[in-house]
């Protein structure tokens, strides 16, 4: 039965509890009321009761019941980011309260792309914490799809990422670090020291290629799409940069990645950046935040990361 959005809103506002929300989120996560009951400390009949209650409130089935468990419906998928965000906000509030009770003057929740959890951005964060020890920072590394969910639900104070295609009302993106592509090879590789390596030369080497959708893969695909001889690809599939960089250090395979992602690996001394003709200028890493609703901790952190103080 289709219900007007205002009716659904009023029903949720007056009758929805966090037990309802937790039951939906855990069941969606594990596809089982048994596992949801186990993790929530409730029994299965209670979980089933809470799920039925939410479905009555919204006038739609959130799950399909089948022999192997529960499968989320389109209606359930539409509501899940909201419910997940509400639980995360509750957790964030608990952490912020604990920070105040522990003597901190404020806490902020930061989520970041893996590329933003590397040396460049972390230097800025380390300098911020040294300058402002009164704040407590909770940081989580997440993929792009998860960061978008955080942005939609407002579950984080600051998100460190590349510029998104669009932003919710009131949010802004401020660039903090420029970025570009770099080709990695082990120290002592036969191409080390050569100048102006062309794509044709690089295509004669073996390459490590991350899964589709990752910046590194997009650069690789754009480079070699029109090269007559497509390079040989090592038959390993992983999005773990730790694994990929270790493989580069132990083999003759090459890897193209954003510089800010590669900086720690280059600092190790086991990996070098080749001198190539082609260099892709990438969208900068930056911060997404909501200035009008920012707490003192969030505003102070955002202004710091935007400044040039820590970059020298």
Could you please describe the fold and organization of this structure?
The chain has twelve helices and eleven strands. With 312 residues, the chain is α/β, with parallel strands linked by helices. The protein has three domains: 77 residues, Arc Repressor Mutant, subunit A, CATH 1.10.10.10; 118 residues, 3-Layer(aba) Sandwich (D-Maltodextrin-Binding Protein, domain 2); 105 residues, Periplasmic binding protein-like II (D-Maltodextrin-Binding Protein, domain 2). The strands form three sheets. Strands 3, 4, 5, 6, 9, 10 and 11 form a seven-stranded mixed beta sheet that branches. A two-stranded antiparallel ribbon has the order 1-2. The longest helix has 28 residues.
Give the secondary structure arrangement, pairings included:
Blueprint: H1 5-15, H2 18-30, H3 33-40, H4 44-58, E1 63-66, E2 69-72, H5 74-101, E3 106-112, H6 119-131, E4 135-141, H7 144-153, E5 158-161, E6 172-186, H8 199-202, E7 206-207, H9 215-224, E8 232-233, H10 241-249, E9 255-258, H11 259-267, E10 271-273, E11 281-289, H12 296-306
Parallel strand pairs: 3-4, 3-5, 7-8
Antiparallel strand pairs: 1-2, 5-11, 6-9, 6-10, 6-11
Helix pairs in contact: 2-3, 2-4, 2-5, 3-4, 5-7
Percent helix range: 40-55%
Structural class: alpha/beta
Beta fraction of the residues? 15-25%
The CATH topology of the largest domain, please? D-Maltodextrin-Binding Protein, domain 2
Organism: Xenophilus arseniciresistens
Domain HTH lysR-type: 16-73
Protein name: LysR family transcriptional regulator
Keywords: DNA-binding, Transcription, Transcription regulation
